[in-house]
Amino acid sequence: MIKDFPIATIYVSDQDRARDFYVNKLGFKSEEMPMPGGMRWVVVWPEGAATAFTLMLPSSAEEKVGVATGFVFSSDNLEADYQEMTAKGVKFTMPPTNQGWGMLSEFEDADGNRIGLSQTNSAPQV
Question: Contact at 8 Å (CB) between 52 and 71?
């Protein structure tokens, strides 16, 4: 039975530059380990998250850098996170926008990979 989603891959052109972006601009935690053949396993994650992201160098043309990842991070205060991230130089391709169910924005990492950031509306009061 499937029970978790612990790791997703983001393809990057430079692991050090990507790690710097996720750690210093987004405030993620990071770990790395050497791999055979001189490669490195570089992992980043938001503190307390159940899912981490491995920052991998592409090994074939099918593994693309600079794409819409389909990943969406959640935020408790999207507007505040947008302001803080923008001040740190994060490029947003879509500012916080009301979607009815909540707010959604989209930013790019150091390689142009597009990632969503959302805040859902609180449950209706009864």
Answer: no
Tell which residue, 113, 115, 105, 114, has the closest CA to residue 46.
115
Predicted pLDDT of residue 122: 64
pTM over 0.70: yes
Q: Which residues of 28-63 are buried (b: 16+ CB within 10 A; e: fewer)?
A: bebeeeeeeeeebebbbbbeeeeebbbbbeeeeeee
Does domain 7-58+66-120 sit in CATH 3.10.180.10?
Answer: yes
Per-residue pLDDT tens for 7-31?
A: 999 999 999 999 999 999 999 999 9
Locate 108 and state its tokens: 């790019």
Cα 1 from Cα 61, distance rounded (Å): 33
Kindly state the tokens that stand for 109.
Answer: 């990492």
Asked if 106 and 67 touch (Cβ cutoff 8 Å), the reply is no
Domains of the chain by residue range: 7-58+66-120
- Two structure tokens written together for 71: 């990943």
Residue 37: φ, ψ to 5°: 80, 20
